[in-house]
Amino acid sequence: MTLLSVENLSIQFETPDGLVHAVNDVSFQIGRGETQALVGESGSGKSQIALSILGLLAKNARTSGKILYNGRDLLAMSTRELNKIRAKEIAMIFQDPMSSLNPYMTIERQLNESLELHEGLKGDAARQRVIEVMDAVQIPDAKNRLRSYPHEFSGGMRQRIVIAMALLCNPKLILADEPTTALDVTVQAQIMRLLEDIRRDFDTSILLITHDLGVVAGACEDTLVLYSGKVMERAGTRALFAEPQHPYTRGLLRAVPNIHDDDGELHAIPGQPPNTMRALTGCPFAPRCVDAVDACFATVPELTGETRQRACIRPVEELT
Amino acid sequence: MLQYTFRRTIAVLPTILCLIVICFFLMRLAPGGPFTSERPLPPAIMANVLERYGLDQPLYVQLFTYLKNIFFNFDFGPSFAQRDRDVNDIIAAGFPVTLTYGFWSAVFVLVLGIPLGVIAALRQNSFWDYVMTGFAIFSQIFPNFVLAPLMVLTFTLALGLLPGGGWNGGQWEYVVMPAVALGTSYLANVARITRSSLLEVLGSPYIRTARAKGLPERTIMIRHALKPTLLPVISYMSPVFVYMITGSVFIDVFFSTGGIGQSFIDAAYTRDYSVILGLAILYSVLTFVLNLAVDLAYAAIDPKVRSGLK
């Protein structure tokens, strides 16, 4: 059953220098209890997609398309309506735990305020729930740390607090925006396991946004590869890793350093990410693509296919 | 916190002692003295006068006598220029005046300046934002010595609403114009600082986190944004407070309030050693007290500072 359906979402920003096309015509669905990965390099618009779901885009953003949550269009909702959904139905785990917590408020206050708002929990009942969630994300000695401030925690602990914050009201959907970027690898694995447990235990859907292919490989059933705000390829994660069918995905996977494939080289995709100040006139990846032909620059490729989709005008067999 | 306050208070005593000693010698270095005049006094009378004020003693003896009187009797000595008055009297007469209009000026600055800045930030680039910016520029090109005469022209001479000077025991009509004239340029700065501080806070990730919780905008403003917004305002206000309650020489002279600023100028002209020293000590104690108050206010708001105090 589809929980969230993003349909033809485009996001532009009005800037003094002109319109920035951050997201171009992106569509995807997340079913109940599913994990969908959104992969792309920085600037590919993946965070903006998550922010648009909760109506948290910057003021100068213009959106088009639909984001249907249980059949209701989130993009068309007023802030008042959105406030009933935020944290309660859809919660977000922000990247950068250093600045996402208010440095002037105790952890307890920052956690219990959404309980108070959405569940009407106060006093001891709220405290109980806060401690429960802090235990769940493995913050040691939760009971005695309630009155601490963010700066008294390490980066990893702060990230757990940010995650705990998202779990408080048992949301149906969690938007995890680079939840592990600020952490070292061992903690990263713990956090990913934690998210997986939550998904299994509560049938929560997760939209995992990351640039880290390693994180995706272990955690998600389905992966969407984004480039310059446009979907390049969508497939089951296993299939995508086994045989990537888009030149960009291939480049990405080749760029992951592999300890077994010891040719001593680091493979990068040549060229620079494109300028988003122009509307798309062709495939955004064409200037960096080894397989590009003239036609690639002239038409914007459609996303085609059934079980797995790709946006490339060249047949898979002809790719190098 | 209490311990911190206590430690700071103890630590300031040697500072003030140094200050007294330095001021004491600096004043004596300046040519002239309280009793030099164009027509010199006969030597016998001069010797008499000097003896009466203890000026015939060696400097170090004078200094010790002075310090002894302060620490044991809280007596800052007689005025050298104004017969029959001592420094305690002069401060007791002038300081309440400046304290009164300085206090109201600070109230005026904060009560108007902070909301103005908040409105300008919330309606960024709107009509009210431009009005606020315009007002800030206006108050910079109309410093108090231009503003005060303009106010007297308007409210006293043209409209007849407020008295143009005097104090009359601090009745409100007499306080309004000194307080407003003194505060206006600070008001504009406070509004400007509040505006930019709030804009920065509202753009910060933790406010976005608060929004993602579904909190109403009002709650976000009061619970999440207020404290960090006020920090730069507090920093700015700390020296301004001292300046305000110790009075502005210009305000005292222009509105004839009889405030302490006037006494300072008079004392400097007449080489009234004891008054100058007494006022310097008053200023430094006030500076210390207000700095401490600001540091404590900072600690009350910022938990990082608080844990640093322990």
What would you note in describing this structure?
The complex is a heterodimer of chains A (320) and B (310). By secondary structure, chain A is of the alpha/beta class. Chain A folds into two domains: 2-89 and 171-270, 3-Layer(aba) Sandwich (Rossmann fold), CATH 3.40.50; 100-170, no CATH class. Helices cover 33% and strands 23% of the residues of chain A. Chain A has twelve helices and eleven strands. In chain A, the strands form two sheets. In chain A, strands 6-7-8-3-9-10-11 form a seven-stranded mixed beta sheet, with helices on both faces. A four-stranded antiparallel beta sheet of chain A has the order 2-1-4-5, with helices on one face. In chain A, a hairpin with a 2-residue loop joins strand 1 (2-15) and strand 2. In chain A, helix 4 (107-118) packs across helix 5 (123-136) and helix 5 packs across helix 7 (155-167). The longest helix of chain A has 18 residues, at 185-202. Chain B folds into two domains: 15-73, no CATH class; 91-269, MetI-like (MetI-like fold), CATH 1.10.3720.10. In chain B, 77% of the residues lie in helices and 0% in strands. In chain B, helix 4 packs across helix 7 (172-202) and helix 8 runs antiparallel to helix 9. The longest helix of chain B has 36 residues, at 87-122. Chain B is flat and about 85 Å long. The A-B interface holds A 54, 56, 79, 82-88, 91-92, 94, 96, 99-106, 113-114, 117-118, 149, 151-152, 162, 165 and B 204-206, 208-217, 219, 223-224, 227-228, 301-304, 307. Chain B: The chain crosses the membrane at residues 12-30, 101-122, 134-162, 174-191, 230-255, 275-301. Chain B: One of its GO terms (biological process) is transmembrane transport. Chain B: Keywords: Cell membrane, Membrane, Transmembrane, Transmembrane helix, Transport. Chain B: It is a multi-pass membrane protein.
